[in-house]
C-alpha cells in the first residue's frame, strides 16, 4: 500500500490510497489486482473484488525473458535447494505461486507495478517444449553436465525441417530463442580496496602453501572416510593388491 496524490483544477491536490495485492494457492494458481480509494480499507475491499476475476494458472515453468514498460526481467530456473534469488516483489509472487528455486535479474525500472505485470506476463506467455519444437520445426535437445553433455531429445515436431530449409541467420539456440535475442548484462565486480595495498600481497604470498587444503580434506573424507597422507593411501592399496594376487 502507498499514498498517491493527483492535482486537479477544481479540487486541487487530492490524496488517495493505492493497494497492490497478489493471491495464490502455492500450487500454480495466482493473480494480482490494483485498487485505489480515498481510504485504505476501501482500497483493500476493491482489490479483493478485482482479484476474483484475475486469477491465472501456470502449469509450465522454465527460463524466460519478459518486459513491461522500462522493466526487463531475465528469469532462470534453478535446481532444488538454490532458493529464490531475485527482487523482493518477485520473491513474494514466487512464494504465493509455489516456485521455490529461481534466479531473476531485473534491468531498468524497479517499479513494483511494472515488476508484477512483467513477471505475470512472462509466466503467462510460456510455452512447453513440444510447442517450441512445433513452432520452430526442430528438435529440442538438452545437454547436461551430469550426463557428460550427452544430447537428449526432449521434444520433436510433427515434421522436422532439413538443413537446407534453415536460414543461416536464424536463431536456433534455445536460450537465445527464449530470451528473444536479449543478453543479460553482467557487471564486473570491483576489487576491494585492500587488494591494492602492499600488505595484501604479503598475505597472499604467506598463505600460498595452504591453498586448496580445505578441498583436499573434503575429498579425502569422501573417498577414504578419514584424513590421511597420500603415502599411506598408496601403501594400503599395495597391500590390498598383494593380498588379492595371493
What are its keywords?
single chain, 246 residues, alpha+beta, Double Stranded RNA Binding Domain, Ribosomal Protein S5, domain 2, 3 domains, 4-stranded antiparallel beta sheet, 4-stranded mixed beta sheet, 24% strand, ribonucleoprotein, ribosomal protein, Ribsml_uS5_D2-typ_fold_subgr, Ribosomal_uS5
Ordered list of secondary-structure elements with their pairings:
Layout: E1 2-8, E2 12-24, E3 29-37, H1 40-51, E4 55-57, E5 64-68, E6 71-77, E7 84-85, H2 88-97, E8 102-108, H3 112-124, H4 129-136, E9 140-142, E10 152-155, H5 174-178, H6 198-206, H7 213-224, H8 230-245
Parallel strand pairs: 7-8
Antiparallel strand pairs: 1-2, 2-3, 3-4, 5-6, 6-8, 9-10
Task: Give a structural overview.
It is a single chain. By secondary structure, the chain is α+β, with helices and mostly antiparallel strands. It contains 8 helices and 10 strands. It folds into 3 domains: 57 residues, 2-Layer Sandwich (Double Stranded RNA Binding Domain); 68 residues, Ribosomal Protein S5, domain 2, CATH 3.30.230; 50 residues, no CATH class. Strand 7, helix 2 and strand 8 form a beta-alpha-beta unit. The longest helix has 16 residues. The radius of gyration is 28 Å and the shape is extended. Pfam families: Ribosomal_S5, Ribosomal_S5_C. Belongs to the universal ribosomal protein uS5 family. It comes from Limulus polyphemus.
Amino acid at each position: 500500500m502507498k499514498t498517491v496524490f493527483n492535482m486537479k483544477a477544481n479540487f486541487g491536490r487530492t490524496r488517495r490510497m493505492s493497494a497492490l495485492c497478489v493471491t495464490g494457492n502455492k500450487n500454480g494458481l495466482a493473480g494480482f489486482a490494483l485498487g485505489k480509494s480515498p481510504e485504505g480499507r476501501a482500497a483493500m475491499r476493491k482489490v479483493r473484488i478485482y482479484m476474483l476475476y484475475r486469477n491465472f494458472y501456470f502449469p509450465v515453468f522454465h527460463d524466460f525473458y519478459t518486459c513491461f514498460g522500462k522493466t526487463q526481467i531475465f528469469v532462470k530456473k534453478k535446481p532444488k535447494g538454490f532458493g529464490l534469488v531475485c527482487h523482493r516483489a518477485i520473491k513474494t509472487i514466487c512464494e504465493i505461486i509455489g516456485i521455490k528455486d529461481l534466479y531473476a535479474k531485473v534491468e531498468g525500472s524497479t517499479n513494483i507495478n511494472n515488476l508484477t505485470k512483467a513477471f505475470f506476463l512472462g509466466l503467462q506467455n510460456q510455452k512447453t517444449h513440444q510447442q517450441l519444437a512445433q513452432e520452430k520445426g526442430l528438435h529440442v535437445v538438452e545437454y547436461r553436465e551430469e550426463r557428460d553433455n550427452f544430447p537428449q531429445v526432449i521434444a520433436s515436431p510433427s515434421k522436422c525441417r532439413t538443413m537446407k530449409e534453415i536460414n543461416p541467420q536464424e536463431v536456433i539456440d534455445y536460450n537465445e530463442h527464449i530470451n528473444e535475442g536479449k543478453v543479460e548484462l553482467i557487471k564486473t565486480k570491483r576489487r576491494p580496496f585492500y587488494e591494492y595495498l602492499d600488505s595484501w600481497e604479503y598475505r597472499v604470498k604467506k598463505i600460498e602453501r595452504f591453498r586448496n587444503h580445505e578441498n583436499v580434506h573434503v575429498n579425502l573424507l569422501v573417498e577414504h572416510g578419514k584424513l590421511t597422507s597420500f603415502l599411506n593411501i598408496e601403501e594400503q592399496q599395495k597391500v590390498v593388491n598383494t593380498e588379492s594376487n595371493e
